[in-house]
Design goal:
about 110 residues, alpha+beta, two-stranded parallel sheet, 4 helices
């Protein structure tokens, strides 16, 4: 799950990218930033469940320079730190499936109750 570049600058890191690289390294799998956040959004934890999907709608797209054919026929695993409603995961899956990925799964560290 890519964070907006401004948020990454504020934090000094991208937690999901760090988690994805560590998981990929540990499993001997490739890791690549295939998505980018196209627009800044309000932090999801500030919103109720009903407003989260609208907040992240069209916020993600394929990473600049990534040819859609690079995803054709592949299964993509998204990595995120926390999942609550799944709105962000769904917003990220759309562009991947549109580019020809055969499937998208997600792995998260935590789940809000």
């Amino acid at each position: 799950m890519p964070v907006h570049p401004e948020r990454a600058r504020q934090r000094g890191y991208d937690q999901a990218r760090l988690l994805a690289h560590a998981a990929a390294d540990g499993l001997g799998l490739p890791s690549a930033p295939v998505l980018e956040r196209r627009r800044a959004t309000v932090a999801q934890y500030h919103l109720d469940r009903g407003r989260r999907a609208g907040n992240v709608a069209a916020a993600f797209g394929l990473a600049s320079g990534l040819a859609p054919r690079a995803l054709r026929g592949r299964w993509v695993v998204l990595v995120d730190d926390v999942v609550t409603t799944g709105a962000t995961l769904a917003a990220c899956a759309g562009p991947l499936l549109d580019a020809g990925a055969v499937g998208v799964s997600a792995v998260t560290v935590a789940r809000e109750r």
